Amino acid sequence: MNGLMDLAIRKCDGAEIFSIEQNENSIRFEDAKIKYLQSTMQSGLALRLTKNGKIGFAYTKNLRSNEELIQNALSTLKGGVDAVFEFPRTESVPALNSYDPSIEQMNNAMMVDECKRIYQFMENKITGQLNITAGTTVTNIRVGNSCGTDLASRSSNYYITIMILYPGSGTGIHQSLDLKNFKKVDDSFMNELADLYSKGRKEIKTTGGRMKVLFLPDAMYTLIWRLQSATSGESLYNKQSPLADSIGKKIFDDKLTITNNPLDDNHPGARAFDDEGVACHELPIIDKGELKNYYYDLYYAAKMQAKPSGHGFKAARWGGDRISMKPVPTLGHLWIKPGNTEFWKIVQSMDRGIIVCGALGAHSGNIPNGDFSIGLSPGLYVEKGEIVGRIKDAMIAGNIYSVMNRVAAIENKNHVAYTGYYPAVLFEDINVAAKS
């Protein structure tokens, strides 16, 4: 990396090198049978450089020649993309405990044994097909640039997702764990999952209408995606955000506080710097319903004449190959502040309503405007504080600036979920469409 930087500096005005190395072991069980078991090792380099006011980009997963990579980046200068920002000089960042060395002792055989143990525990508690996905990942990232920044991080991750499918359907109840190293799944975790599944076994029909809707943590991304879009520097620059000039204004119910905190190393994936070498810090997005901050990468911070917030990551909503991506504004460490009510107490408070366990079509609707329209996958129906079954062919629709202003209750603990760590949240008066 140092030789590449020295050569790049001689040929351009500024340079940035991003390198990543990732080792992953993963397995998947479907209906007590191993579907796949694999180990992968990947590494790559991405080079951004500036020259004569323009910026170029190239990447490789097989560095045969420093000269060739630099020439590839120089050739992209012909695209005429303006270099509106300067690479940062970041001399120090907080030291995070993001890596547990004991993960190196993990192997696929240990994960297979854990999956078999879970099957044995659950086989007399459920009637549906049980699918399990598990894996370990060790990731090394280094970011350096011609301004003197040279930062490195190492992180470890063990994940496991358990899904129970309802017979004759492709939908079911699922829950995940995300840790820095292997840990056996607690019996209480599996019992709670089996209990929720069992309460939704009966397929029922009911009328739609406006009612209470409880979003489980794994369905909250449906709403969070809209907030991420509206508070992004990219949306602000493109005039696609309904929250322009809204800092300090109340936009949600005062029960909601949402923070992005990449420095919390109690959980895997903590980061002290982003993929552009800008230092990360805790950033409140919503504080008791009030909008506190937007977030930026280097490019859109320069465009909006704002300060980079440490949110330039190689990421995309639908995933992808990080080494080939360019950094964009990304909120990847979101937290919703828990409330003070236990989950089943919230369910008991629902006279009539729906529990959203999963979403179909979360990308549909006008995301920048905050609109959503999703199918329930599945949706559990609650009547007089009891789950009486699951609904087939039901949808909910709304706008987050209306829905998230009507919070009835928030669960008293967070769970790992897609895009962050969230509690279950109960909203009042959401439109539900169902085949009666």
* Relative helix content: 10-25%
Spatial extent as radius of gyration: 23 Å
How many separate structural domains?
2
Average pLDDT number: 94
Largest sheet: 10 strands, mixed
Question: What is the number of strand segments?
Answer: 24
**What is the approximate shape?**
globular
Unreliable segments of 5+ consecutive residues:
none
Strand content: 35-45%
Termini separation comes to 63 Å
Summing up helix and strand content along with how strands pair, one would put the structural category as: alpha+beta
The total of helices stands at: 9
Structural overview:
- The protein has two domains: 2-195, PmbA/TldD fold, CATH 3.30.2290.10; 202-436, no CATH class.
- Helix content is 18%, strand content 37%.
- It has helices at residues 2-11, 66-75, 108-122, 187-199, 221-231, 233-237, 298-303, 343-348, 400-403; strands at residues 14-30, 33-51, 54-60, 129-145, 150-165, 172-179, 203-204, 209-215, 258-260, 283-287, 290-291, 312-313, 328-329, 334-336, 352-356, 359-360, 371-376, 379-383, 386-391, 394-399, 407-410, 415-417, 420-422, 425-434.
- Strands 7, 8, 15, 16, 17, 18, 19, 20, 21 and 24 form a ten-stranded mixed β-sheet that branches.
- The radius of gyration is 23 Å and the shape is globular.
- It starts with a helix and ends with a strand.
- 43% of the residues are buried.
- The mean pLDDT is 94.
Task: Walk me through the topology.
Blueprint: H1 2-11, E1 14-30, E2 33-51, E3 54-60, H2 66-75, H3 108-122, E4 129-145, E5 150-165, E6 172-179, H4 187-199, E7 203-204, E8 209-215, H5 221-231, H6 233-237, E9 258-260, E10 283-287, E11 290-291, H7 298-303, E12 312-313, E13 328-329, E14 334-336, H8 343-348, E15 352-356, E16 359-360, E17 371-376, E18 379-383, E19 386-391, E20 394-399, H9 400-403, E21 407-410, E22 415-417, E23 420-422, E24 425-434
Parallel strand pairs: 7-19, 8-15, 14-23
Antiparallel strand pairs: 1-2, 1-4, 2-3, 4-5, 5-6, 8-24, 9-10, 9-14, 10-11, 12-13, 15-18, 16-17, 17-20, 18-19, 20-24, 21-24, 22-23
